[in-house]
Write a structure and sequence with these properties.
- The structure is a homodimer of 111-residue chains.
- Chain A is α+β, with helices and mostly antiparallel strands and 111 residues long.
- At the A-B interface, helix 1, helix 2, helix 5 and helix 6 of A face helix 1, helix 2, helix 5 and helix 6 of B.
- Chain A binds a DNA duplex (30 and 30 nucleotides) through helix 3 and helix 4.
- Chains A, B: It comes from Hyphomonas jannaschiana VP2.
- Chains A, B: This is ArsR family transcriptional regulator.
- Chains A, B: It holds the Pfam family HTH_20.
Chain lengths: 111, 111
DNA sequence: TCCATATTTCCACGATACTGGAAATATGGA
DNA sequence: TCCATATTTCCAGTATCGTGGAAATATGGA
């Protein structure tokens, strides 16, 4: 049952603050951001953010590495692309109606 | 802020039963399935299923149309592909790391 | 060693979600 | 009209989630 992971990832992203955190980390790129900066950017107390980061981290969507006093969080691109592929293949069974618009978007967005 | 819809869709899919309902409806194709059959397939009481269908429906992921005594539910392919595109473009900013695997999956899955 | 900084863990409160019983609504057939 | 079927709405109980104060932990520097 591979959908257990997908479920935890959907769950993690299905919340305003956490989606915002993830988007911020994507924008930040491979360098990532320290937890404190994320908290400041979102206007959330550090302990609250910490539990949200923990949920994203358990879902494999972000990763944290200590660097000095800070912990630098980065988005996990493999995880999000895995989720997207799950939605396309396992969930939607590669249906043409789903695939085609995604393909078009992929082409115009980056590929 | 277009992400409000995406959030409600992520939320709707972030639950075991509802994800199962959606997958079942995708498998059922354009003919869809009556609510009763879905409830039976998942082993969920009809009123419980009804509220779950309602959540999926409010998120635009499924649609119900009365046909005689039954209400036939169908998956909304536009909605799910819209969500996938949102994750790729708005959320992940068309990053190559996200796009490429999705592109590859799309190619092998259907296109 | 002592202190400041960065983050997490512990804990509890309020809010929201999931579930299913009971009753209501809608449809079709006798 | 009356009844059976299909589904929804109403409602309440339990569980899970989101939040943030207070304390704990980890690191680096003086």
């Amino acid at each position: 049952m591979e959908s257990k992971l997908a479920l935890s990832q959907l769950s993690a992203l299905a919340q305003e603050n956490r989606l915002a955190v993830f988007r911020l980390l994507v924008k930040a790129g491979h360098d990532g951001l320290p937890a404190g900066d994320i908290a400041a950017a979102l206007g959330v107390p550090p302990n609250t953010l910490s539990s949200q980061l923990n949920i994203l981290s358990n879902a494999g969507l972000v990763e944290g590495n200590r660097q000095g006093r800070s912990i630098i969080y980065t988005a996990n691109y493999d995880a999000i692309s895995g989720l997207i592929v799950f939605l396309m293949e396992d969930c939607c069974q590669g249906r043409e109606e789903v695939c085609s618009p995604v393909m078009a978007a992929a082409q115009s967005a980056c590929c």
